[in-house]
């Protein structure tokens, strides 16, 4: 099953990835903890995740042309 996992990397930066994990939620949580470490959320499906770091490149450009 496809999940969107939100986690903290080794530098404590907030990250997200789309990954394949077992269908069972508990097994999927354990699997993603082994793969990604500090898992904050595990959302079934493929979803965009927006964090403050996601908007940093946009803030450095002209917002009128960024969208």
Attribute tags:
alpha+beta; 3 helices; three-stranded antiparallel beta sheet; 67 residues; 30% helix
Structure notes:
By secondary structure, this protein is α+β, with helices and mostly antiparallel strands. It has one domain (2-66). The protein is built from 3 helices and 3 strands. It has helices at residues 25-36, 56-59, 63-66, and strands at 2-8, 14-20, 38-44. A 3-stranded antiparallel β-sheet has the order 2-1-3, covered by helices on one side. It is flat and about 35 Å long.
Alpha-beta content class: alpha+beta
Main beta sheet strand tally, sense and closure = 3 strands, antiparallel
Strand order of the largest sheet: 2-1-3
Overall number of strands: 3
Uncertain residue ranges: none
Q: Using only CA atoms, what is the Rg?
A: 14 Å
What share of residues are in beta strands? 25-35%
Broad shape:
flat
Helix content: 25-40%
Short description:
This protein is α+β, with helices and mostly antiparallel strands and 67 residues long.
List the helices and strands and how they pair.
Elements (H helix, E strand, L loop, with lengths): L1 E7 L5 E7 L4 H12 L1 E7 L11 H4 L3 H4 L1
Antiparallel strand pairs: 1-2, 1-3
